[in-house]
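call fold target=Tol-pal system-associated acyl-CoA thioesterase
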Amino acid sequence: MTQTADQIQIRVYYEDTDLAGIVYYANYLKFIERGRTEFLRTRGVDQGAYKAQTGVVFAARRVEADYLAPAVFDDLLTVETRLSAIRGARIFMTQTVLRDGDTLFRAQVTLAAMTEDGKPTRVPADLCARLDRVLE
């Protein structure tokens, strides 16, 4: 897996496919999860360390997904992650999975910031400051 600031590449393995030989629909959610993790990592946020330091974790609250075309075994996919907005306890992202520039999957993702015991909390100011630079 290689990465740039807003993209990672993922190879489709046999285990990612279903009986028809195409990527099983739920695996796209795994692919975009990796994209979000790397998006934060490239901005200096290690989610495990962040949890230990602040007690704040992030969970997918809502995913609106469009499956546009199938990926198949051995495809090299690009997962693009873009920050759309930060509001209160929520982070909004747009994610796209592409093959050779063609869009296969697109999702609007809402993340919720919460304490370790599952209560909503505002996105911490230090994280907002890091991510606000992306929105500028």
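return ok
The mean pLDDT is 93. The beta strands are 7-11, 56-67, 76-87, 90-99, 102-115.
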